[in-house]
Amino acid sequence: MTAPALAQSVDQKVALLSGASQAARSLQPLNTLQVSVGGEVLLDEGYRGHRTTAPTNIKSASKSIVSALVGIAIDKGVLTGTEQKIAPLLKDKLPANPDPRLAEVTIGNLLSMQAGLERTSGPNYGAWISSRDWVRAALAVPFVDEPGGSMLYSTGSTHLLSAILTRASGKSTLALARDWLGKPAGVTIADWERDPQGIYLGGNQMAMTPTALLAFGELYRNAGRSPDGTQVIPQAWIAQSWEPRTRSRFSGEPYGYGWFQRDFGGHVGHYGWGYGGQMIYVIPDLALTVAITSNENSPSARTGYKDDLHRLVAEEIVPAVTARHAAPARS
Q1: How does 114-132 read in b/e, with b if 16+ C-beta sit within 10 Å?
Q2: How far apart are CA 213 and CA 207, in angstroms?
Q3: pLDDT tens sequence across 186-242
Q4: Other beta carbons less than 10 A from residue 243's beta carbon
Q5: In angstroms, rounded to a whole number, what is the distance separating the alpha carbons of residues 184 and 165?
Q6: pLDDT tens digit string along 272-311?
Q7: Which of 33, 141, 152, 295 has the most other CB atoms within 10 Å of its CB?
Q8: Which positions ≥6 away from 67 have C-beta within 8 Å?
């Protein structure tokens, strides 16, 4: 390709997503925005001094990453499957007189937020992380539904998964993530909070660069393969993760194993969401991946900001990408 043709291509990409860029810039909590189509990054922007190469706290978007680690662990034989019961794996952490229903909770129940245990998120989060043993405390909360029942979004559930991964593998969850996701695919974790026993906090307080978050979304978009073709996440696990298993009591949206699902401009999309507006979107039929990071200190659901981000994707990015797909090829 000649230099003028290359310059024209760059200009076309800038023009294509100019509306999305302007809309993103007007959203004050939004820090960075990256858009990739078919593995090609079409937009990579930071706003108000933020950079896509600087680590940021992705909050509960890390629940999608914990789900990926579980899928890889099952594929490697570290865990037996989603129907594996958790009580034998955490036997010494169970309450003295455990509710019999604890014996029925499975790894799949934890992944889909259907353990039946009272939530440790929301108003209960502070008391939970103030406890001396977060794993023991998460197992000691009362049942408010049956295992496999309604969705009860709880960071305690994904933290139990982190503890299970650590015990079953003999390695920390951070070591597993760096080995299984970081080295082959560039999904690098810069920092991660630990509980008083040293277990990395499954589903919160994880620092990654926006670029690493985009690389994670690209793994799912590309059927679990890294750019060099290495199969990092089993393709079957991605299908299992995206299969709707329950619904959010707040939004009504389907939820699988660490991923929400909704319609974006007539296209089915899957997304991971962290407090404040840390987002990873994958829309398979458009080969589209979007990574967004935002101010981590402001709620995004109650303020309507999460809906603003959904509209940014549905009303600005998806139409632009659809137009790109529909545009006739140029010689």
Answers
A1: bbbbbbbbeeeeeebbeee
A2: 10
A3: 999 999 999 999 999 999 999 999 999 999 999 999 999 999 999 999 999 999 999
A4: 13
A5: 20
A6: 999 999 999 999 999 999 999 999 988 888 889 999 999 9
A7: 33
A8: 111, 241, 257, 258, 259
21 near 312, Cβ under 8 Å? no
Give the Cα separation of 163 and 30 in Å (integer): 33
Q: Residues 235, 239, 240, CA angle at the centre, nearest 5°?
A: 110
E strand spans, 104-203: 189-192
Classify the C-alpha dihedral 193-164-122-133 as positive or negative. negative
Widest distance between CA atoms in the chain: 74
CA 52 to CA 208: how far, in whole Å? 10
Compute, in degrees rounded to 10, the torsion defined by CA atoms 306, 310, 315, 321. Answer: 140
Token pair belonging to 53: 């190469």
Nearest CA among 293, 322, 288, 286 for reference residue 309: 293
Where do we find the tokens 């023009």? 15
Identify which of 69, 28, 86 has the alpha carbon closest to the alpha carbon of residue 308: 28
